[in-house]
């Protein structure tokens, strides 16, 4: 389920690029969250009046993390190659994975991963993008870490997909000001159609699969499993967007993946 989720996310990110370039990242991401939240709410029908303050708080934090992670990630994809965006964003899951391991020597692996990210970000001795553009994948990394921790938490507090449904509604509400500010209230029919089908690839299908996966594994193990996502992103970026990763960038990708495999072996 987790691997299927990663493939869906990266394919959705690649297919989103021309749509977000035409209509804007903020408005398109907002519409996707709205569509995903609406579909899941209709299917799940969460009983809102029965939830405790603890459940509402958890759903609010997860929804906010979803909103920040999604906005930052798709802004990153617009500015940097897909493999680079995921390579940097992956530091979030790696932190979660490392936090679950109680051995001091394991601190070496986040440093190895950081070296890998630096190599991914450089090509022929130059940065592949401006340093300011790296703010967005870094923000996505923080959001991703919070997302994994809170998705696990929400999965234990709610039955079925009720917590995910609530969190997606929160995410849609949090992103509404950004979406309306960019669109100016003008939403072409073509953008609505594109956002609707892209919402299935990201976020609806991945979030459902990841919620189910996190019910069967620890947050640390899930973070480790995410290690193959940079490789999936690089492959999809090459096939769909024609963004090959060359030279030291391939070595950097291997370092990030190897760091997570090492964590997995030590856990």
TrEMBL record:
<keyword id="KW-1003">Cell membrane</keyword>
<feature type="transmembrane region" description="Helical">
    <location>
        <begin position="247"/>
        <end position="264"/>
    </location>
</feature>
<feature type="transmembrane region" description="Helical">
    <location>
        <begin position="129"/>
        <end position="149"/>
    </location>
</feature>
<dbReference type="InterPro" id="IPR000620">
    <property type="entry name" value="EamA_dom"/>
</dbReference>
<keyword id="KW-0812">Transmembrane</keyword>
<dbReference type="Pfam" id="PF00892">
    <property type="entry name" value="EamA"/>
</dbReference>
<feature type="transmembrane region" description="Helical">
    <location>
        <begin position="187"/>
        <end position="209"/>
    </location>
</feature>
<feature type="transmembrane region" description="Helical">
    <location>
        <begin position="26"/>
        <end position="44"/>
    </location>
</feature>
<feature type="domain" description="EamA">
    <location>
        <begin position="136"/>
        <end position="260"/>
    </location>
</feature>
<feature type="transmembrane region" description="Helical">
    <location>
        <begin position="221"/>
        <end position="241"/>
    </location>
</feature>
<dbReference type="InterPro" id="IPR037185">
    <property type="entry name" value="EmrE-like"/>
</dbReference>
<dbReference type="GO" id="GO:0005886">
    <property type="term" value="C:plasma membrane"/>
</dbReference>
<dbReference type="InterPro" id="IPR051258">
    <property type="entry name" value="Diverse_Substrate_Transporter"/>
</dbReference>
<keyword id="KW-1133">Transmembrane helix</keyword>
<feature type="transmembrane region" description="Helical">
    <location>
        <begin position="56"/>
        <end position="76"/>
    </location>
</feature>
<feature type="transmembrane region" description="Helical">
    <location>
        <begin position="161"/>
        <end position="181"/>
    </location>
</feature>
<protein>
    <submittedName>
        <fullName>EamA family transporter</fullName>
    </submittedName>
</protein>
<keyword id="KW-0472">Membrane</keyword>
<feature type="transmembrane region" description="Helical">
    <location>
        <begin position="82"/>
        <end position="99"/>
    </location>
</feature>
